[in-house]
Amino acid sequence: MKNITLSIEDDLLKAGRDYARKHRISFNALVRKLIRQTVVSENTNWLDEAFAMMDKLEITDKSEKWTRDELYRG
Description:
The protein is mostly helical. The protein contains four helices and no strands. The chain starts with 9 loop residues before the first helix and ends with a helix.
């Protein structure tokens, strides 16, 4: 594995480190993951990851339901 030097604004670096800490991964792992997701076009797990992220959301009001027409309204 190669090392690189990256210039990044202080506030963005802090936000990235905070995000990584909150998600219990290293900042390096976060950067590698984001680069991989961005540049590897054969990422077939994106839909599973999106649903996993939605499952983690804490939605307090689950009573609202939409009709099929409302969902597909353009």
